[in-house]
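Reopening this one. Same input as before:
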Amino acid sequence: MRRLLLALPFALLPLAVAHAAQEHDHDHDHEHGSLGAHEHGVGRLNAALDGQTLELELESPAMNLVGFEHAATTDADKAKVAAVRAQLEKPLALFNLPKAAGCVVASQALESPLFGDKPEADDDHDHDDEAKGEHPHDHSEIHAHYQFTCSTPGALKTLDLANVFNTFPATQKIQVQLISPSGQQGVEVTAKAATLKY
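Same output, byte for byte:
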């Protein structure tokens, strides 16, 4: 299954390139030049359904989920990070998986510098930034990876992301890449159109 999820970005790369050509966005992170550029208000979700295994991988700028990207130093910031982590630790509710599918969480992992994880090396920033008092890791991301075992995967007809938008209202759109028995698709969902078919 891990191999399937890792193949997903490559399988949908032509679609992503076409989408990027259609909508060239000049946001604050333009110097990165990658397809997965950090853009506030935009999250990414990779979803793969293979037999009874459903994998969901959510990536989002921390700004979308907690409202800031700096290290939590105040009690209020620490409480917000803890609350968001608690929400992310309840994926069955967050992704509104139908009870008829009988999905249970097989594994889950949450990663973010805000959760105390070490930030990944970032060669795009000049090390002089720190000397100037600038923080090279101000673009914090939150990554959540979930694996579910579903006793009746045929009951998974749609993926409803309405709870994600309701829980994290700063998220304006989610770029979804989905592989299921019916094929693969790449689609952008919003709070007004938060459901897609498997």
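So the earlier flakiness isn't reproducible anymore. For the record, The longest helix spans residues 75-88.
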